[in-house]
Amino acid sequence: MLESLLFVLVYFPVISGAGCALFRSPRAILMGSFLSVLVSFLIAVHLCVAVFSGDVVRSARNWLFLDELSAFHLVIMTLVFLLSSLFAMGYYREEVRAGKLKLRQIRQHTVLWSGSLTAMTLVLLSNNLGLMWVGIEGTTLLTAFLISLHRTKPSLEAKWKYLIICSVGVGMAFIGTIFVGSAATTLRLGFQEAMMWSELLKSASSLNPVFMKVAFLFALVGYGTKVGLAPMHNWLPDAHSQAPSPVSAMFSGFMLSTAMYCLMRYVPLVEGATGNVGWSLELLRFFGMVSILVAAAFIVLQHDLKRLLAYCSVEHLGIIALGVGLGGLGTFAALYHTLNHSISKSFSFFAAGRLGQIYHSHDMDKMHQAIKVSPVWGIGILSSLLSLVGMAPFAVFMSKLQIMRAAISGGYYYSFAVFVFGSVIIFISILRDAISIVWGVEERSLETIENELHGVAIDESHEGAKSHDKGRIKAIRGQMWEWGLVVVCISLLLVLGLYLPKELMDGMNRAAKIVGGGF
What we know:
519 residues, 1% strand, single chain, 78% helix, mainly alpha
């Protein structure tokens, strides 16, 4: 039964997505897409519970498998897609109402959205390193066209920049995959077994250490490009800022973590081949620290809210890389941070997207008094940004604290200093921007801002203006689905920060031990 569910997870999203695209209204298409993702999420949770209880699920002659590491990421992925699909229903409805999107583009989004979910699922379920690479390449090709859903010159430039840079990166990851196969020639495995991660792990100490080092260098640069680690992050700010907000939420919320997951699979193989001297971990620490510092430098200078969030992704993926590089408790904290960042970053792009629709701009210099103009998303952007900078008692604070503990207990004082230095700069910069957006002083009166947002003309009749205003005020103040989404996201971040269930903690610890860490 469990084995068949692996096939369902791979095939169901793309089949249901194609079926939803046949509907004749944007609302029906988006609702069908949401229900499809909901089914995938429920299946993922069911499988995760089974795996965390001690079962490793295998299927397709061991080509597909699910252990604690992949099950943990699978639940995060489907949760991000679920929340983003819910947000997309309201977000795209406003876009269609404003004439910015048509039925054809909604259909295009749904097909590419479901295809991206299938590709990322394939990455997580693949036992074969070559098949895992195919899944990453699939995410690149499918998600590129989501960036330019609004066909503008900046979005097309961002799409091709993303496609070219990430394709080069994924090509380098392919070379790394080939070197892993070359390193396994001494194991005398069959053609299929030579690329199976589970088989390679059993004999990791017998792999050719030189070839494995070369393989990891190519994989680190290749998959690191897709992760957005500095200095391979050039595509990320443009893609995140130009993509529709549901797509940006999916990008930052999990697509970057998909590539990081691939690097996590390489770590125990490289460490086993090189005698567990921490060679790969040192490289991850280095790129993690560089990413944190580069992100801090650029976040200070940002004026566009979505670009600021994009550089914030560079920081947080750098934190995850640093945590994995610290090993031990740091690996556990990195997985914990992966979960917290996915929820926080998706939430922040939801808020940025709706505020962008309300203010008709993502320029933070033009976004003021959000708490009055749109209370629901004023609260949303404030709480999501506070979570991202690590304000207590949100969950990101706890995962950051564990990474600092791991750095100090492991004697990595330089890493600790870089982490704290970058985090302080980012904390001050983002807190400044959050205060400006939520409570900033605007030269115009609030009534003038609201009239501009509602589109109420001065010469309208009193009755007509009142009717028009009544229809628009609800959208500004927040509908039930908006309040519900904000409450769910805030609740998740608070609960994960204040209480981590024992079953989840134990499962995360076993996942960390697969990478070579844990406590």
